[in-house]
Structure formats: C-alpha cells, structure tokens
Write a structure and sequence with these properties.
Radius of gyration of chain A: 37 Å
Strand content of chain A: 15-25%
Distance between the termini of chain B: 68 Å
Protein name (chain B): tRNA (adenine(58)-N(1))-methyltransferase non-catalytic subunit TRM6
Shape of chain A: extended
Number of strands of chain A: 16
CATH superfamily of the largest domain in chain A: Vaccinia Virus protein VP39
Subcellular location (chain B): Nucleus
Number of helices of chain A: 16
Shape of chain B: flat
CATH class of the largest domain in chain A: Alpha Beta
Structural class of chain A: alpha/beta
Strand order of the largest sheet of chain B: 10-9-8-11-12-15-13-14
Helix content of chain A: 25-40%
Strand content of chain B: 5-15%
Largest sheet of chain B: 8 strands, mixed
Distance between the termini of chain A: 75 Å
Family (chain B): Belongs to the TRM6/GCD10 family.
Largest interface: A-B, 138 and 154 residues
Number of helices of chain B: 26
Oligomer: heterodimer
Helix content of chain B: 25-40%
InterPro entries (chain B): TRM6 (IPR017423)
CATH topology of the largest domain in chain A: Rossmann fold
Pfam families (chain B): Gcd10p
Chain lengths: 545, 677
C-alpha cells in the first residue's frame, strides 16, 4: 500500500518542520519516534521502500526487542498508529554477509546504534550497492506478536530519545525555563551551549510564529555552540528537522566572541545560557559596553525596546554565586534562583490478602486484622484437632509438653510459609487463578480491578539537575526618554485614587457608587414612570431593593 | 509586547514587602500604595517595565510625590559591598579594605550610611555614635515618616542607629534586621507587566489560589509542553457564503476538515487561567503591539474611553484602550461589533450573516459545563467573552467555546438546533432597527454555533489540555475520539488521586484483558466503534486509546543567593502539589482478532509453562504486554518478588530476555518459536 504513497509524499516535501506541524500521517523522509515501551523511544527517519537494503529484502528495517519493523509498514499511516511487527529474515542475512558479521550483531542489539545506521547507510556504504540494486522490495508479512507505536516528533519525545552529546536539559527544566523567560511566539531567543539540542527544539516551538520572510521579523532562536563536532551534528539535525529557517546556529566561543551575528544585533529578549562559566559571557549581554558606557560602536545583542529575560543553567552552587554576582554588577534585577525537582509516579494495584491469586506482585499476607485472626483461628483449630488425634493414637506422650507443641506448630507454619503463606494448607476457598484465563476470579473482581490503587515514585529519581538563575534587564532609559514621557503624560490635577485608600475615601467612593447605581435606576424608573404617566418620582428612591 | 507601560494597562507593582499589587494604570489618577506612598499614574505611563521607582518626598510647591528611577547599582549596592568586603578580607585581611567599601557606597548606600556618610552598621566593627544608642518610640517613628524622609531611608538609618544592641548583633542577624526594616520603610516599587507568569504567581500567592486550582508556574510549563501547545499556523479564515437574509442554514459554509489545523481542546475550571496560558503559548493572548515609542494619539484615547463597554466583572474598567489603533492583524475586518465601538476604524464592506469570524487554525476550543464559560480572568488581558460588542482582540478569532451539551447532544441545544430566522430584504427594510439588529444577531449566532459544534465534532484536534474539577475519566471518554493520532494529552490536577484512577484505566492488565478479547461487549465492533467506546464498569475507557501514560509533578525550590549566606528558603507556599497526567493518543492496529486467535491457541499448551519457568515469564503474552508498562530496570526486576506492583505483572518474555541488553536476536527467535508451538 505504501509503494504508491511514497512518490506522492516525497514531492510534497514538508516545508514546515514535523516538530511544528507533523501532518496527519507519516511521510517518507520525515522524522518519526518509535515508542517501544513507555519510556523507550527511538527516533527514525522513514525511508521509502526501494529494493533491498542492508541485506533486508523488505527495505530499511528497524529491529527492536519487540520484533522487526520494515519502514514500509510505517509510512503513510496516521500518527499514533500501532504497528505490528513483521516477519523479517534476520538470520540468513547475517549468514550471507559473513564479512559483516559483527555489524549485523550490532543491529540485532537495537538501541540507539541502529538509528544513525538506518539513516546514513544509503549513501555511506558502497558495499551494499549490489544488494540494493537487486529485486524489488519483498512483500511484508505480519508477525504473530509484537508491536510498537509511531509518534510524531515533539520536543518532549525528542528529548527522551535524542542521541546524547552532552548533559541534556530535560522537560521539567526547560518547560519551566521557557515559561519564566517569556519565550513566546515572536520572541527572539539566544541559546548558548546548544549541547544535545533538547532545549533548542523546545525553544523553537515556543518562539515559532511562522517561518521568517525578508519582510517580517518572526520568532527565532540564535544558538551558539563551541564544540565543533557537536556544532556539525546539530547543524545536520536541524536541517533534517526542517528547522533551518528558525534556528541560526553559530560555531563560536561566546565568552570571547559575544552574541552578535555578522556584527549585527539579533535583538533578543530571552536568553538561556547553558555554559560552564556564564559570568564570562554576561558582559556581552548588556545595553552598553560595560567597560566603557560611552562606546558608540559597541552593539548590544539585546532588543533595545524590551526587557530582556535571562536564565542560566549551572549544576554547581559556586557557579551560581559567581553568576549572580556578575548579574548584580551588570544591572540585572529580579535575580531569582531556583532548582526544579521533578518526580514521576507509577500507579499500580497493591494486592494484599490471603485469598488472592498467586501471581507475582501479590502479597500473600493478611489483608487486615480480621483476615489474620481468621487464619490464626483456623490454624489453631486444626492444630488442636491434630493434637487431639495424636493424643488418641499416642497416649503415652500425655500431650502436656508445650515446648514440643510449639515446635510442631512452628514447623507447620514454616512449611506453610514456604508454600506462599500456607494458603494451600489453609484452604479458605482459594481458587488459584489460572494465569492464562482473564476470567474473573472467585472473588468476582477481575484481576485488573483487584486490590487498592496506589501511586509510587519511580525507582530512581533525579534529585538535582542544575540551578536555574533568572534575572531581568530593563531597557535603557535615558533622561531624554524620561523628558519625552513626562511631556506626553503631564501630571494634571489628579482626582481619582487607585489602590490603597484610607477609610474615609473608601466610604466616599462607595457612597458615590451607590448614588450612581440608584441614580441610574432612578432615571430608568422615571422613564418608565413617564411612559405610564404616573408621578412616582417621590417614592422611587425608597423602593431600592 | 510589554515594552512600555501603556495607559490603562494592567500592571503589577512589586512592593518592598514582597507583595504585588495588581492595578490598572488609568491616566490622570493617583496610585496609592498605602504606607509606601502615593504618586500620579502619569509618572509611570510611557516608561519601561521592570524599572524600580522610588517615591520621593513632596516638594513644598507640588501637591504630589515625584518618582525617581533607582539604578540597579543602588539596588544591589549592599550585596556588592559585602562581596567586595569578603573578597578583600580573604585577600588581605589587614589592609584597609573597609575603606574601599565605604567610598564605593558613599552617598548611595541607604541603610548603611547615616547623614554624615558614615557606615552605620556592618558586622559590628564600626563604632556607633554613643548618642545614637537610644530606642526610638513608635511616635517618634511616625513623626519621622511624616516629615519627608528621603523615601524612607532616613527612618531606616535612624532605626539602625537607635538600636541599642546593634553592635552585639552578628553579621547575619544584622543583615536580617536591616532587611526587615528596609522592607517596612523603603518607599520603592517595581512595575511588572501582567503576563501569565506574573499574574498567575500573584493569583496563587496573594489572591485566591483555589480560583486557579493551585496552578503553579511549573505546572503551566509542564502542561503546555506536554500538551505540545504552540503556534498552530497562519490564520485561515472561513469563506463568505454570501448568503442572503432569506436563505437559511443550507447556505452555511460546511466544515472543511482538511483546513482545520493546530487546534487544541481545553477544559478549564480555572476561570480562564489555563486558557490564558495556552493562548500565550499560541501567540493569541496579547494584541499585536508596535514597539514604537508611542502609538497613541491623545484624541483616540478620549474617544475610546467613552466607547468602552460596560463589563460586569472584576475588571469592569477594562477599557481596552491600548488596542484601539493597534488593530490586531488577526481580527476579521468585517466584524460588525468592532466598527460599532470604534469610530476610528474604517467602515469596511459588511459580510453576510453567515460569515463566521473564526480562524480555522491556531485555535483553542473550550468545552464548559455551564451555559457560559467562566473565563473571567481573561479580563486582565482585556478580553471579555460575554461582551457583545468587543473591541479587537486576537482571542476573538481564536477562542471557540461550546458546552458539553452542544458537543454531545447538539440536537438538544436550542441555539444549535433552532433554524435561523429568514426574511426577505423588503420585510427587513420595514422593520424597526432594533428588530433588524436582533434578526442579524440571531443569524450570526446560529452560524457561529453551527460552525463551532460541527468543527469540534469533526475531531482531529492537535492536543488536549485540562485543569478541571470534573472527573478526568469522564472528560477523556468524550474527548479521546476527537483527538488526532499521536496527539498529546496533558491533564492537570491539584491532587494525584483522580489522575491515578485515570492512569489505572490504562493499566497493563486492563489492556491485556481488552486486547485478548475477554470483554464480550467489544466483540464484533469495528475500531471506529471502539474509539467511541461508551465505557462500562470494568473498562471506563478503551484502554488502547492512550500510550505512554505517565504522572508527574514538579516543584521549584527557591534559594537565597547572598555572599556567604546562600541557602534554600526556609518556608515556601504549601498546599496542593499539583500533578500532570500525560499520554499520547494511539490508533490501535486493525486485525487484532487474528492475533488474539493465535494467542488463545497457545495459551493452554503445556509447552508454554516450560517457557515461562525457563525465562521467568508472566502470563500476559499478548501484544499489549510486549510493550511493557514502564522502564522495568534490572534493579526493579530483581525486587519484583518483594514489591507487590502490577507493573511487573505485564512484563513479557521478550522483555525479560533483553533485560540485560545483551541477548542476541537468535535467542529471541528461539523463545518466540517455543511460544508458538
């Protein structure tokens, strides 16, 4: 079905990034995120099925622990679709390509290693060309089990799946940062330390209000990366994601080089610094040359007409101290430092009870005191019966050796305990729920509704990511500006008071308000009264409800 | 936006006490800050935001206080001086580092310097004038405050001086004391714009947190990001059907599903706070403003003021003046309402009644449980959904609202199901203007309701965000079918319980049971029918419609950063933590029946048990199980026996095989093969 789809979609190469407008269905060449399990996401650039690829008769294939997924099964489907695994011959491919044995093993391992391979192979491996030119793509047969979901790329899924290059700024941090630095559609944002690109993608989405044209300034991200390799990878990534027009990536050391683009100001109003020493870059982000305020040639990278909001992202408190100190000296106000603690919760059903199934995850101990009591009573009764029996059969023991009895009881309980709480021993109408059947167990409650619903934190938590320092730099305000504003808004004889007023004034205001309200009502009433030709003017004010 | 303070803008005034005062800056009025003084509003109009002003003493020949812009160097003088001192001490403890500090702060430092320019107090080393060791009485302080006192600085200085035991205080307690007195007496304020971040913080911390369901800044970030709310594309307006007044509903423009893009569903019980936050992310909250110094002509100011609509809400003085001539590009020109209120606007050719002035892209659709949505907080952004003749505002074309009744049973809704009135041109001409107006209004309302309901029911929304006191399960039951594939869902709740119950609807055992065909009601139903699954007791929602279900919370911990005194704040606001439920809309695969048959076949086989014991598998060997509910780490796996968690329940054989991340595909094949036997 996808063969016909491919050429059509390729002609309409998505101009808008799939991050911003993914469209309704998956397309050839587009980035898609495969969701293997909840937190296991894998990015894939979908390739058109074109003959054999990398030894696979089906074209490009993604191998996961949940089966093999030829790209052809994932193209032209609605986003969010569940994709069944296909029967893909992985074995013979390995045998045929003995010289590449090691490589195919890597493939089998799946994980991030498969991604770059999937997208770079076509142009980078000449060894494959002979294979590729052979017969048409094999028809795909669905496998009996295994599936994945295919998700449209968003900064969130990209952040959880992206190839790590540096420490990643995760969603809890960047969502808060973007909110605080007022990154909105139309904003111009400076980001220094592009790193792995998670913040870049999130900030593009935040400032995006259309692709910029010659005539109109639109929201844009100016990103700076010092590390050359990361810069090139990032550049490639941005192109692949169609974000080229929205992100201007520069390879530069901003400590010495500053933030100007070809000597011109990007006119930014939001700044995010993920640098080891933000204080060394801060002096570039001033309104005037901090060393020489009279310097006319100095160009500020900030928007001269708006307040600038900054956030720096530093893991150590010493960095924060230095950053804050530099900010204070450079005139930033509203300095605020926070750290974000994010926690994820898993929900599950806590199943405790003696009569529950023996599934894993079930705590086969007493659910409450009553259940414990019932069980103890039963054990006691049985034991007494047993003791009575043995007494009958074994009279010479006299049955008064308490120590012996206790030992026997303990032994029995121990035995029972070994067999999962001894529920086999104590047959309290327990029916071992057969794992295969999903029919409701004896209790009448289906498995998935049994027990108490609980939430529990994830097993491992990030207790510290980084400290976030926020600050604001107001726009410059000169005496001339002040004089102009003063002449535009001259102080006249102000009458009305807004805000905190003393009691007398408040009372007076209230009185006036009431007067106004009754006045209106009075006027309306009078109108009506006039219509009805009734002279009710004298009584009107008293009828106020 | 927010470059200069515009007349009639809502602003926040941050006071030294840490509190914020939200007021509307009406020109030619006096703003009173209580004990911090009063000043004419005109003295801050036209000035930039985020500046700190100081209320000066009245001069003898003026009846009002003038303002002074406090330079940042002065705001931070104390901290900088301390830093310098600390550095100086560290470098050379003996030399005159203190001298430098004094000169650096001379004349500027307010609380440290008395009239003679001496440092009053720093760590108790300085000698305090003997005559100053006396306690001021309350009356004396009042007296001081009255007799013009250099914006409160004199009071503070005198208080510091008069503290008898000042020299016995440590640096820390001294700083604290100073700060306390400064907060109380310094007459300063900072003007901040009312945007979502600052307004929500004020509403949360100082006004009424319950009104916005305790939504904290962290939550706005999470909900917005996980809901993937962003600018949804350039406006695309509906065509004018050019329907004549004697034509009925047949001439309404039908919904074009392909044109609908970038639309988000919102369920909002936060009086519009969530809508405002999402609108801000989509770029439709603030009117487009020129950054030019002054767009306003004084005449226009007057004109609009007289034309301002009366609003019955908190912000009844919300005069929308600042937008009068900066007409947002997004506003439909033929909107009759705006021409009625704003004479300045050019009279443009009127469209027919059935023109719906709504964009098909970049919209928010609010579903509300009362007949009118409660979006009262939007008044602070000069938008009033109840105003009949609204001045231009971007939200007008991008905010759609409908009731749950209109969404679910439109035929019962009067405004949707009553056909529009028709009349010939001659009839119309014979009517009184008021009747004619009513006629047009009814027709317009009909077209609008029709369009909103039909387009919403057409579905294909880009996402759902919700902060509602209603049960999220019931919300999702009716909104899940409206979401396009892969669309994110982000639901905020102040407490975790409703979200946990919701997440439980998508638990692995439930999904497994569903997909393995143990729900008799689902038999024979198509995928489309199952998407609109009405729910039963055991399966309130179709558990296959969401993927990646997760619940999280975030909390910002605030720190004080001062030289040698950096630590987290001792107390912060408590109350609701706030949780966010996130997931993506999934499109279950077709042909599930086939898979189920195969799995049923293998289930009773004895070989299965062997596999299980060998690979430590669990019963749920179905497609649903293979996706494994969470990142079952090896560590968790080990503890699975002790932790009674259902998460482990769903883990499948392949998952286990790969747990160590080293298993080869051949091994996996083997396992699969055995399963199939």
């Amino acid at each position: 079905m996808d063969d016909t789809m491919a050429p059509v979609t390729r002609n309409q190469a998505p101009k808008i990034s799939p991050f911003l407008e993914p469209g309704k269905t998956t397309k050839v060449g587009s980035l898609a995120i495969l969701q293997l399990s909840r937190d296991n996401l894998q990015p894939v650039y979908l390739q058109a099925p074109s003959g054999k690829h990398d030894g696979y008769a089906e074209g490009a294939v993604v191998n996961t622990r949940y089966g093999s997924f030829p790209h052809s099964t994932m193209i032209g489907v609605p986003w969010g679709s569940q994709i069944r695994a296909s029967k893909v011959d992985t074995g013979s491919r390995g045998r045929n390509n003995k010289r590449k044995r090691n490589k195919s093993d890597d493939d089998g391992k799946e994980g991030p290693a498969a991604i770059p391979e999937a997208k770079t192979e076509p142009e980078s491996t000449p060894a494959e060309v002979i294979d590729d030119s052979s017969a048409a793509t094999k028809k795909v047969v669905a496998d009996v089990s295994g599936f994945i979901h295919i998700l449209p790329p968003t900064p969130e899924v990209w952040t959880s799946s992206l190839p790590h290059r540096t420490q990643v700024v995760y969603t809890p941090d960047y969502s808060y940062v973007l909110h605080r630095i007022r990154a909105r559609p139309g904003s111009v944002l400076i980001e220094a330390g592009a790193g792995s690109g998670s913040f870049t993608h999130a900030s593009v989405r935040a400032v995006y209000n259309g692709y910029p044209t010659e005539a109109e300034r639109k929201g844009k991200v100016y990103s700076f990366e010092f590390h050359e390799q990361r810069f090139h990878k990032m550049n490639k990534e941005l192109k692949e994601h169609n974000l080229g027009g929205l992100v201007h990536l520069t390879h530069r050391d901003v400590y010495s080089g500053g933030f100007l683009i070809d000597g011109k100001s990007p006119e930014a109003e939001a700044i995010f610094l993920d640098l080891p020493a933000p204080w060394e870059a801060l002096h570039h982000l001033s309104r005037r040359n901090p060393k020489n305020p009279g310097d006319k040639d100095w160009v500020s990278p900030l928007n001269p007409k708006r307040s600038a909001h900054i956030c720096t992202f530093s893991p150590c408190i010493e960095q924060v101290t230095k950053t804050v100190s530099a900010m204070r000296r450079l005139g930033w106000v509203g300095i605020d430092m926070v750290e974000i603690v994010n926690r994820k919760y898993h929900t599950s059903r806590e199943r405790v009870g003696l009569n529950l199934s023996m599934d894993r995850g079930v705590n086969n101990s007493a659910r409450d005191v009553d259940e414990a009591l019932a069980r103890l009573t039963e054990i006691e009764t049985r034991f007494r019966e047993h003791a009575a029996k043995s007494k009958e059969s074994d009279d010479e023991m006299d049955g008064d050796d308490d120590g012996g009895l206790i030992k026997m009881r303990e032994k029995k309980e121990l035995k029972g305990g070994k067999r999962r709480g001894g529920e086999k021993k104590v047959k309290v109408d327990h029916k071992p729920a057969s794992p295969e059947s999903f029919e409701t167990p004896a209790s009448g409650v289906p498995l998935w509704m049994e027990g108490r619903l609980i939430t529990r934190g994830e097993p491992e938590i990030k207790t510290h990511t980084s400290y976030l320092v926020f600050a604001t730099l107001p726009r410059e305000w000169t005496d001339q500006d002040e004089a102009a504003a003063a002449s535009r808004y001259p102080v006249v004889g102000e009458q009305k008071v807004i805000g905190v007023v003393d009691k007398a004034a408040r009372k007076q205001e209230r009185r006036e308000q009431l007067q106004k309200a009754t006045g209106n009502r009075k006027a309306r009433r009078m109108e009506r009264a006039a219509e009805l030709a009734v002279t009710a003017e004298g009584t009107a004010p008293e009828v106020v409800p | 936006m927010h470059s200069l303070i515009r007349p009639n803008a809502w602003v926040g005034l941050k006071l030294p006490s840490g509190s914020t005062k939200v007021i509307q800056l009406v020109p030619d009025t006096t703003i009173s800050l209580g004990k911090y003084g009063a000043f004419p509003a005109n003295l801050v109009l036209g000035r930039p935001y985020h500046l700190t002003f100081e209320v000066l003493d009245k001069t003898p020949d003026e009846s009002f206080s003038r303002l002074r812009v406090v330079p940042p160097s002065e705001l931070h003088a104390e901290a900088i001086a301390e830093e310098d001192e600390a550095e100086g001490n560290a470098a050379s403890a003996t030399n005159g580092a203190n001298q430098a500090v004094v000169t650096a702060t001379e004349g500027e430092e307010f609380s440290l310097v008395d009239e003679k320019g001496n440092v009053v107090a720093r760590s108790g080393r300085e000698v305090i004038d003997d005559s100053a060791i006396q306690t001021l009485t309350q009356d004396e302080i009042e007296e001081l405050k009255k007799e013009g006192n250099n914006a409160g600085k004199d009071v503070i200085a005198k208080l510091m001086l008069s503290h008898t035991a000042l020299d016995q205080k440590t640096t820390f307690s001294l700083a604290k004391y100073k700060l306390l007195k400064t907060k109380k007496y310094i007459r300063r304020f900072q003007v901040v714009p009312i945007d979502v971040a600052s307004f929500a913080q004020w509403q949360l911390e100082e006004k009424d947190a319950s009104k916005i369901m305790d939504l904290r800044a962290e939550m706005f970030g999470l909900v917005g990001c996980w809901g993937n709310v962003h600018f949804g594309g350039e406006d695309s307006m509906m065509d004018d059907p050019h329907s004549r007044t004697d034509q009925g509903e047949e001439t309404c423009v039908p919904v074009q599903p392909d044109e609908l893009k970038g639309r988000w569903l919102v369920v909002d019980d936060t009086c519009g706070m969530l809508v405002a936050a999402m609108a801000e992310r989509m770029g439709v909250l603030y009117p487009k403003e020129d950054d030019d110094e002054e767009p306003m002509v004084p005449e226009a100011k007057e004109e609009v003021k007289t034309a301002k609509p009366t609003q019955n809400s908190v912000a009844h003085e919300n005069a929308d003046v600042e937008m009068s001539d900066a007409v947002p590009e997004t506003t439909v020109p033929e909107r009759p309402k705006t021409t009625a209120t704003n004479k300045k606007q050019k009279v443009r050719p009127k469209g027919s009644d059935f023109v719906v002035p709504l964009s098909q892209t970049n919209t928010l659709t609010v579903i509300h449980s009362t007949s009118q949505p409660n979006l009262s907080l939007l008044n602070y952004w000069n938008f009033d959904i109840t105003a009949p003749n609204h001045p231009p505002h971007p939200l007008l074309n991008h905010l759609l609202n409908l009731t749950w009744l209109q969404l679910l049973k439109p035929e019962l809704d009067t405004s949707y199901s009553t056909p529009p009135p028709t009349a010939s041109a001659e009839e119309l001409a014979s009517w009184k203007p008021s009747r004619r107006g009513n006629f047009h209004r009814k027709r317009r309302r009909f077209a609008r309701t029709r369009y909103i309901v039909d387009s919403t029911r057409a579905g294909n929304f880009s996402g759902l965000v919700s902060a509602s006191s209603m049960d999220p399960i019931s919300i999702l039951k009716h909104t899940l079918p409206l979401l396009s594939g892969g669309a994110p869902v982000a639901i905020y709740s102040p407490s975790i319980e409703p979200l946990a119950a919701l997440a439980d609807c998508f638990s692995v055992p439930r999904r497994t049971a569903w997909t393995s065909g143990n729900v008799p009601e689902t038999a024979g139903k198509s995928l489309e029918e199952l998407e609109r699954w009405e729910g039963n007791e055991q399966f309130p929602l179709n558990p296959t419609l969401l993927q990646g279900v997760s619940i999280q919370t975030s909390r910002a911990r605030r720190w004080q950063v001062l030289p040698m005194r950096t630590h987290p704040l001792m107390t912060e606001r408590g109350g609701a933590d706030g949780y966010v439920f996130t997931a993506w809309r999934a499109k279950p695969a077709e042909g599930r029946v086939e898979a189920r048959g195969k799995f049923k076949k293998i289930q009773p086989s004895s070989s299965r048990k062997a596999v299980r014991t060998e690979e430590d598998s669990t019963p749920a060997e179905t497609p649903a199980a293979t996706e494994e509910d969470d990142s079952a780490t090896a560590a968790k796996r080990k503890r699975a026996d002790t932790l009674p968690s259902l998460d482990t329940e769903g883990s499948s054989a392949p998952e286990n095989v790969e747990a160590g991340d080293v298993a080869s595909p051949t091994k996996k094949r083997k396992v699969d093969g055995e399963v199939e036997v």
